[in-house]
Specification:
This protein is mainly beta. The protein folds into two domains: 140 residues, no CATH class; 61 residues, no CATH class. It is built from two helices and 16 strands. A four-stranded antiparallel beta sheet has the order 3-4-9-8, with no helix packed on it.
Length: 267
């Protein structure tokens, strides 16, 4: 049995479209030196997931440079409109089969449009080492499903299953970082709260365009601005909490359950 990457995308069905011949699509233990271990795969659900990937340069909109320093104009004032910075972003996709009797869309809703809540260690190659992705830097971009009935070569059994395709994007930046909080006034006091103008220099000039604030709503002072890093800046909030940009999910469990790996680790 073989896997085809174009046309109908059917596993094990004859076609004139060029095939990607992967041994793990044909036998259960392709890396075993013992011939007796190379038991043919008949049930499509037993085939190993198939990986495809790419990377692309995207323009990240940011107030900070790649080192987390706020970008400023030549007059020393911080920019208030994010500027595009080129970064590399990976797109990784896996295709795998799930028996129709076991298929439930809710199983995939758990991570759809979510980001990883912790480090994800993805198996790769024949090495025990993993490709580790830091928390919050991997996002599930969605699923596609195709119901399939197939009678593989050498079998008289018709198998009913669902071919699942899942796509992730891996970014150099966390997916859950809210926009920086900027305003022309700062919050002073916690009982008798006042909104006061912000001094932007020693002459006492006031901010006329949004100025960066800290997490308490106070302005980052012009004297602190040259050494401030991204962690010093406040972000947009909702009901007093930092704005939630993405829901978290346990990707480790998902990758383990469906045996997703980078090419190529075999049992």
């Amino acid at each position: 049995m073989t896997y085809t990457s174009g046309g109908t995308g059917v596993y094990g069905v004859g076609t004139s479209i060029p095939k990607e011949k992967r041994k793990d699509q044909k036998v259960k233990k392709p890396d075993s030196p013992v011939e007796a271990d190379n038991v043919p795969i008949v049930d499509p659900v037993d085939r190993h997931p198939v990986f495809s990937g790419s990377s692309k340069v995207v323009m990240r909109q940011s107030l900070f440079d790649l080192n987390g320093k706020i970008i400023k104009h030549t007059n020393g004032l911080p920019i208030t409109t994010p500027v595009p910075i080129a970064v590399s972003q990976k797109t990784w996709t896996w295709e795998f089969n799930v028996a129709a009797a076991d298929f439930a869309v809710e199983d995939f809703d758990e991570i759809d449009n979510c980001i990883n809540d912790g480090t994800v260690g993805i198996k790769q190659g024949t090495s025990p080492d993993t490709y580790d992705i830091d928390a919050y830097k991997m996002k599930c971009m969605g699923f596609s499903y195709k119901e399939v009935w197939e009678t593989p070569d050498g079998s008289e059994t018709e198998y009913h299953f669902v071919r699942v395709t899942v796509s992730f994007e891996v970014s150099v930046d966390p997916w859950n970082t809210p926009p920086t909080s900027l305003h022309t006034k700062q919050r002073v006091g916690f009982v008798n709260v006042r909104l006061l103008p912000i001094d932007i220099n020693a002459a006492g000039d006031k901010a006329k365009t949004p100025w960066p604030l800290d997490s308490d709503g106070l302005a980052i002072t012009y004297t602190d601005l040259p050494t401030a890093v991204e962690a010093d800046f406040g972000v947009l909030q909702a009901d007093g909490d930092d704005l939630v940009m993405a829901e978290l999910a346990n990707f480790e469990n998902f990758f383990f359950t469906y045996k997703l790996s980078l090419p190529r680790v075999m049992n």
